[in-house]
User: Which sequence fits this backbone?
């Protein structure tokens, strides 16, 4: 599989269609939205939009007509949760990044089973193996990356560092290391974050995940 096709294949598998058929946000009915995601929960609305404004918003089939009308106005994020059956939920638009060329930073972590005693609770939810940086003196946990296996072609990385270990560059090195493994597995590594999260943006840039102006839309 050519590297350039990995992202397209991921987005088709994740959203049900890619690229958009029109010039704006293409709202599509996708039965896969009713299936549990990587975390075992149903995600009734997920979308990706390019820097030019084109993209695909994948929603439950029962909601597609209402969301298409909503998407023509300025209140998409405000009205989306109720339209997809999550009136108490929140819709957000975050930064969507990916890479085929992670930064050549030195490895700093080891892969451990998510249920390992050294793995903190927030990392355990990812299942499988997680990548962790351990204190060379005490052997304790310092930072880690979990992998969200959305489908066979796209694996999203999430990183966290304990407060006492911040500022050492551990997060960027772990993200780059995990990205290389995702690529070796034949998938594309992605990285999502809130636009206001400056620290996460810096980590992504340093790890080789440029900001291309793409965004992700979702309801939580």
Assistant:
């Amino acid at each position: 599989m050519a590297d350039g096709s990995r992202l397209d294949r991921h987005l088709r598998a994740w959203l049900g269609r890619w690229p958009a058929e029109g010039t704006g946000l293409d709202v599509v009915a996708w039965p896969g939205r009713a299936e549990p995601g990587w975390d075992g929960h149903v995600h009734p609305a997920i979308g990706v939009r390019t820097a030019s404004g084109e993209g695909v918003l994948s929603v439950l089939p029962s909601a597609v007509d209402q969301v298409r009308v909503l998407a023509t106005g300025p209140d998409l994020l405000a009205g989306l949760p109720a339209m997809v059956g999550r009136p108490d939920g929140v819709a957000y638009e975050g930064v969507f990044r990916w890479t085929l060329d992670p930064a050549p930073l030195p490895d700093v972590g080891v892969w451990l089973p998510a249920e390992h005693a050294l793995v903190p609770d927030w990392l355990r939810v990812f299942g499988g193996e997680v990548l962790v940086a351990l204190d060379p003196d005490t052997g304790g946990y310092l930072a880690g990356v979990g992998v969200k296996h959305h489908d066979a072609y796209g694996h999203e990385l999430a990183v966290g560092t304990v407060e006492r270990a911040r500022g050492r560059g551990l997060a960027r090195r772990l993200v780059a290391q995990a990205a290389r493994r995702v690529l070796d597995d034949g998938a594309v590594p992605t990285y999502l974050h809130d636009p206001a999260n400056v620290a996460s943006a810096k980590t992504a840039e340093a790890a080789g995940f440029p900001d291309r102006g793409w965004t992700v839309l979702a309801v939580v």
